[in-house]
Amino acid sequence: MTARHINGRSARTLGRVATQGVDRILISERRLRKRVRELGTQLSRDFAGSEIVCVGALNGVICFLSDLIRETDLMTSIELVDVHRSVDEGTHRVTLDENPFRETLEGRNVLIIEDIVDTGLTLTEIVAAVRRQQPASLKICALLDKPAHRQVHVSLDYVGFVIPPHFVVGYGLDYEGRYRNLPFVGVVEDAEWLPAMLAQAPSA
Ligand code: 5GP
């Protein structure tokens, strides 16, 4: 997929205060809406007759999850979990609470909904926590798949867009707490982002 450079409506959108520091639009609001609708339709078909628990990691997933569930015609419930990130001797670590869920997932159909999969570490931890609860089934839906920095293999059942290794913001995704409210996915060219830095570092 190629990056979408500033033009027409995009240029006007980027002129707003909320977009200051964003270099360009990668995925427009219109494309996001269309793709989320397609994913919702596909989920409704694939899970027809089942009730699903949607598991998402805070905070990045808020826009995607809330739009996606409204595009499905399914009985759904939601479990939002906190993710703790740290750096240990140059290694990026991701942990969840011992039991991050309010309700049991045992015997239930679980759909993990992710905003973006980069190294794969966050998703791996969420998958492990869900599996410990012995769900009846487990599927994964990611809006953005950024495979260039992958450190662990993850298998995604539904993907919105495969993107190049840019640091992206908007539609729930932040940089230093900002930009979650942008209706599109944009690129911040000079963002300092740990997984990307680790991927570029010469190996010892
Ligand atoms: P992973 O654990 O796969 O490296 O990264 C997953 C999490 O890192 C995402 O849920 C998101 O919070 C953050 N992340 C990864 N890539 C990006 C990015 O390009 N932009 C933003 N804003 N967050 C990212």
Describe this structure in words.
It is a single chain. The chain is an alpha/beta fold and 204 residues long. The chain has a single domain, classed as Rossmann fold (3-Layer(aba) Sandwich). The protein contains 5 helices and 10 strands; from the N terminus they run αβαβαββββαββββα. The strands form 3 sheets. A 5-stranded parallel sheet has the order 3-2-6-7-8, sandwiched between helices. It has a 3-stranded antiparallel sheet with strand order 1-10-9. The chain has a two-stranded antiparallel ribbon with strand order 4-5. Helix 3 links the parallel strand 2 and strand 3. The chain is globular. The protein starts with 7 loop residues before the first helix and ends with a helix. The mean pLDDT is 90. It binds guanosine-5'-monophosphate.
Topology:
Blueprint: H1 8-14, E1 24-27, H2 29-46, E2 51-57, H3 62-70, E3 75-81, E4 84-88, E5 91-95, E6 109-117, H4 121-132, E7 137-145, E8 158-162, E9 168-169, E10 185-187, H5 194-200
Parallel strand pairs: 2-3, 2-6, 6-7, 7-8
Antiparallel strand pairs: 1-10, 4-5, 9-10
This protein binds guanosine-5'-monophosphate.
Question: Class by helix and strand content?
Answer: alpha/beta
Gyration radius (Cα, Å) is 17 Å
CATH topology, by name, is: Rossmann fold
- The neighbouring-strand order within the major sheet is 3-2-6-7-8
